[in-house]
Amino acid sequence: MKEFRLFFSLIMFTLFISGLEAQENAVEVIEKYRPQIHFTPEKNWVNDPNGMVYFNGIYHLFFQHSPSSNVWNEISWGHATSTDLVHWKRKPIAIYPDSLGLIFSGSAVVDKNNSSGFGKKGQIPLVAMYTSHDMKKEKAGKIDVENQSIAYSVDEGETWIKYSGNPILKNPGIRDFRDPKVFWHEPSKQWIATIAVQDHISFYASKNLRDWNKLSDFGKTVGAHGGVWECPDLFPLEFAGHNYWVLLVNINPGGPNHGSATQYFIGEFDGVNFACDFKQTKWLDYGPDEYAGVTFSNTGKNKILIGWMSNWDYANQVPTEKFRNGFTLPRKLGLSKINNELFIKSLPIENLKKIEQSSKKINSLTVNGTSSTFPLIGNIQTPSKFELRFPPENFAIELVNKLNEKIIIGFNKESNQYYLDRKNSGITDFNKEFGKIVYAPRFLKQGDITLSFYLDKSSIEVFADNGLSVLTSVVFPNETFNQVNLKATGKLIITNFSYTPLYSIWK
Ligand code: FRU
Fold it and tell me: What percent of the chain has a predicted confidence (pLDDT) above 90?
């Protein structure tokens, strides 16, 4: 009898646990807007990606996170890891606020030579530098609200210890002084921190990641200045055998399509000054929903960027509940020259091929006025990827659902612009800035247009001309898009149309 009871309890316990597990897994499937090919924490608020670093075969993504609220609050560093940048493992919160303030954005580096001295007995420490943001001082109207602090990990990023001498870099008397991005500069054998200071960037140097001295400033009179400068990044990118230096500067508001966006400068960095031959403001992504984008540390020449997939215009209001906001697909950055001017191109990383199901391909598709691809490719599913090639004529592709809600992606020959229209894409009324059409210039001067885009449950990321013109947008349709319509002003032939359903990264 005793054995029977024990056996019975065991069975009940197993059923209970598997029920819980099923519920856990179901979370990903049931939630209407839960991204299926992008990382999101299980619950609550996120903004900027932070401390992205590659170490011992693992990519670490830290991020601005409210541990117990779905709006911006009590900002800590959340944590996730991945071995392929496609599938993610959610980890416990890495760094919590303390008496110096909230844990604002920053970066992490692998301190291979233990220059910081935080590693004991041959350990290689990971060192994170972030902004301590003091809310009490902010409320009291003080200036010195933001100071830089460090924390280190000697267990491969699992746990973090704050340095007892924080803050290590004090506020120079400017209210906005934040988001340090650190890298090792081999020619001058020192660490460089790129810091956003209201309307410009300041560069600092250090031999040990604790003591910093100022090198120079950049940007007061160049680039876009419609808002505060935030989350910078400085790194080299090779083109035609030359190492150029790219400076990313996120700005909010003042983006090309309202609100937050990432601008960039391409120039030279000599270990002290960044200089660039400025001709025009350049944007990494013209869509409304790529912000705070910065690159992974310790990936060599391979520069991979992840951005926050939202916009400060409405980030606190988007109609999700359990989680709020997420991240873009990881994108590999490169340079391209057009009419003697350099531009960044960004494309989703190759590893995403891992989640591709078999594609439906059409080699030549004639569009005359409006045509529906419905009979050709059938119902489409989310997540999925589309690729197509067509001459630079007026053209639009619409993703439509049963309620006639749609996203329209198009090219306008006259204005030489790509556009993304989410006016009638589902829930749009939570903010007046949301339901709009956004535009991106076409930089490529000749040849066919190549377009690829990734559709997820609540986002679309469009890459034109091999990543020269990019448009990222979140969307909240009331039903999934199931049909594709193609539209041209006259007769247009699409070559290499392909539709690829994608596997969820959570299954
Ligand atoms: C950018 C930003 C950063 C800051 C963080 C606070 O989105 O404003 O400048 O460190 O968010 O969460």
Answer: 92
Which range (15-29, 84-98, 217-231, 258-272) has the least confidence? 15-29
Strand ranges (DSSP E) for 57-119?
A: 58-65, 76-82, 89-95, 102-110
Please tell me if the CB atom of residue 231 comes closer than 6 angstroms to any atom of ligand 1: yes
Peptide bond into 49 cis (omega under 30): no
Mean of the per-residue pLDDT values of the chain: 94
Domains of the chain by residue range: 44-350, 356-501
Cα separation, 340 vs 337, whole angstroms: 6
- Report how far residue 459's alpha carbon sits from residue 45's, in angstroms, rounded to the nearest whole number: 17
- Mention every residue, 6+ apart, whose C-beta is less than 8 A from residue 212: 148, 168, 169, 193, 204, 205, 206
Handedness of CA 25, 30, 31, 32 (dihedral sign): positive
Alpha carbons 228 and 254: distance in angstroms, whole number? 8
The answer, yes or no, to whether residue 8 has pLDDT greater than 70, is no
Q: Is the pLDDT of residue 488 over 70?
A: yes
Q: Does ligand 1 come within 6 angstroms of the Cβ of 230?
A: yes
pLDDT confidence of residue 375: 75
On the 0-12 / 13-18 / 19+ scale of CB atoms within 10 A, 17 is: exposed
Q: How many CA atoms lie within 13 A of 160 on its CB side?
A: 27
| Residue in this structure with the two tokens 């060599």, named with its chain if needed | 300
Ligand 1 atom with the shortest distance to the CA of 75:
12
What is the residue with the minimal CA distance to atom 9 of ligand 1?
230
pLDDT at 30: 66
Residue 440, helix vs strand vs coil: strand
Residue ID of nearest Cα to ligand 1 atom 6: 104
Q: From 2.60.120.560, 3.40.190.10, 1.20.1250.20, 3.90.1280.10, which CATH number describes the 356-501 domain?
A: 2.60.120.560
Report the distance separating Cα 441 and Cα 468, nearest Å.
9
The mean pLDDT value for 319-333 works out to 97
pLDDT at 370: 82
Contact present, 73 and 316 (Cβ < 8 Å): no
**What pLDDT score does 24 carry?**
40
Bridge partner residues of 397 (DSSP): 409, 486
CATH number (2.115.10.20, 3.40.1190.20, 3.40.309.10, 3.90.550.10) of 44-350 reads 2.115.10.20
What's the predicted TM-score (pTM) here? 0.94
Ligand 1 centroid from CA 328, angstroms: 17
Q: From the CA of 190, how far away is ligand 1's center (Å)?
A: 26
